[in-house]
Amino acid sequence: MSSAERTVVEHLYKVLVIGEFGVGKTSLIRRYTEGYFSPNYKLTIGVDFALKSLDWDENTRVNLQLWDIAGHERFGHMTRVYYKYAIAAVIVFDLSRPATFDSVLKWSTDVHEKVMLANEQPVPLLLLANKCDLPDTVLDADMLDHFCKENKFIGWFGTSAKDDTNVTDAMSYLVETILQLTSEGQKPQEHISVHQDQDYLTAMKEKRQQDALQSQQKQRKKAEAKCCPI
């Protein structure tokens, strides 16, 4: 079959990126989707989004919709809305802050209580031990292997958004798992069109309003900075 006759199948998958505040979720997403790192990211408020398109093979294009959910949202009422239609989740902890690892199971429980696959099996979870570039951080591979096996994570990676360590490898591993699931007919339990879901649409509207407000605030600050005292 010639390239002109080849049919490319496109997939859109929603993936949650969750964990405590300050563990580097936004930095990892930016590194993966835009290829750069900045130490000056602001704390995520509510939820943010990013899209990554992958030509997985000559017949498959994968579009990942990455939902960057603020660390404090686990305690809020909106996570059930944010989690809808997700087919997988990445849980991130900060190797330099052990308390963030202690919260991993709380996040995994939150996901499993609010979203599952159509066969009522849990969505796959991938664990990222982030900031492995920092001095004095130690990756205990045996402990993490045991933890993932005991708690049914599909695996773990030590990552660094700053040094671009294992970021692409980790996400490729997750995509491979998702494609295997969908080839077996699995999909999120709630898989109606997003345009038919009022809660989802409300969340999107709030996100657009939030973005517009932040943009206005930035423009106002720029205008104020240009003003000269009389």
Can you walk me through this structure?
The protein contains seven helices and six strands. About 3% of the residues have low confidence. The N and C termini lie far apart (72 Å). The protein folds into two domains: 183 residues, Rossmann fold (3-Layer(aba) Sandwich); 38 residues. β2 and β3 form a beta hairpin. It has a six-stranded mixed β-sheet with strand order 2-3-1-4-5-6, with helices on both faces. It is an alpha/beta fold.
Rg, Å, rounded: 19 Å
Number of H/I helices:
7
**Can you say what the CATH homologous superfamily of the largest domain is?**
P-loop containing nucleotide triphosphate hydrolases
Helical content band? 25-40%
Structural class: alpha/beta
Compressed to H and E, one letter per element, the order equals EHEEHEHHEHEHH
Largest sheet: 6 strands, mixed
CATH architecture descriptor name of the largest domain: 3-Layer(aba) Sandwich
Which helices and strands, and how do they pair?
Elements: E1 9-18, H1 25-34, E2 47-57, E3 60-69, H2 79-83, E4 86-94, H3 98-102, H4 104-114, E5 125-130, H5 141-150, E6 155-159, H6 167-183, H7 198-226
Parallel strand pairs: 1-3, 1-4, 4-5, 5-6
Antiparallel strand pairs: 2-3
